[in-house]
Amino acid sequence: MLKNKNALVTGSTSGIGLGIARELASKGANIVLNGFGMKSEIENLRTNIESDFSVKAIYLNADLSKANEIESFFNSAESKLGTIDILVNNAGIQHTDSIETFPVEKWDLIIALNLSAVFHLSRLALPAMKEKNWGRIINIASVHGMVASTQKAAYVAAKHGVIGLSKVIALECAETQITCNAICPGWVLTPLVEKQIAALAQEKKLSLKEASDLLLSEKQPSKRFTGISELAELASFLCSNAAANITGASLPVDGGWTAR
User: Fold this and answer.
1) Residue 9: CB partners within 8 Å, gap ≥ 6?
2) Cys staple from 228: which of 19, 50, 77, 237, with CB 3.0 to 4.6 Å?
3) How many other C-beta atoms lie within 10 A of the C-beta of residue 38?
4) To 10 degrees, the CA torsion angle through 37, 211, 140, 106?
5) What is the dihedral of CA 127, 132, 133, 138, to 10 degrees?
């Protein structure tokens, strides 16, 4: 389905990003991996994608909170792989604190990485997509782009911004074969969420299973985590011809969280 397409997936050395990268590769796309981790482990991920799916995979890292590094990163990706057909903005970080004690440097970093990087990579990818008259921009937002939770001011603000930005890109590209959509997961069992479960267990003196159940029951009516494979297959669908007229959508994958 995606043979000869090039996909750049940020934050793709683990979790949701890696799942999406592997799913797109399984459909024939060449992959730009990006993210943190041990050099040897990342090299294994890269070579496994190439051997498992017979595509080309490269790894590039950058501080995506800095506009100048984003430009260098994107230019390097194009020089090594070719123009980017599919952009998946997945990289993000989280910090929890009340408004009045939220560290300013954490606010600035979260907005820069979770929101501004989405803008910068999109503006860099769009010219070549418009020249080809084909492209897919998929932004991994969050249920917190649709509703709020306490203690997450920067994350909620950034993810609301990602959904708004996705709509603007969709409208500006509406008469082309370029689409832009936001996927909005609820609870997904990623390393970030595992840390939250561990912190909750310690705070309330619960087992990890009890803390996990408590976390889910508070917000996610299905009381189960969304699987990474579910998000990866949705991203793949958004790249397909069947989704050619789906654009500007915010797609919750949240077990009923936003249905309340």
Assistant:
1) 17, 20, 21, 24, 31, 32, 33, 34, 88, 90
2) 19
3) 9
4) -70
5) -60
Write down the catalytic residue from 73, 74, 155, 187: 155
| Paired strand residues for 138 | 88, 181
Please name which of 193, 99, 219, 215 lies closest in space to residue 150, comparing C-alpha atoms. Answer: 99
Tokens of 177: 């074969």
How far apart, in whole angstroms, are the C-alpha atoms of residue 6 and residue 55?
Answer: 10
Residue that the structure tokens 């709020």 belong to: 148
Q: How many Å apart are CA 159 and CA 180, to the nearest integer? A: 15
CB within 8 Å of 152: residues ≥ 6 apart: 94, 96, 144
Q: Domain residues of the chain, as ranges? A: 6-186+227-259, 189-225
pLDDT at 180: 99
- pLDDT tens column, 9-38: 999 999 999 999 999 999 999 999 999 999
DSSP H/E element including 168: helix 153-172
Q: What CATH number was assigned to the domain covering residues 6-186+227-259?
A: 3.40.50.720
Cβ(28)–Cβ(50) below 8 Å: no
Which residues, including other chains, have CB under 8 Å from residue 70's CB and lie 6 or more apart? 62, 64, 117, 120, 121, 124
Confidence of residue 151 (pLDDT cuts 50, 70, 90): very high
Helix (H, G, I), strand (E, B) or coil at 84: coil
If phi > 0 it is left, if psi is from -120 to 50 it is alpha, else beta; for residue 35 that is: left
User: Percent helix, strand, coil in the chain (nearest 5)?
Assistant: 55, 15, 30
Q: CA-to-CA distance for 84 and 67, rounded, in angstroms?
A: 18
Active site residue 59: no
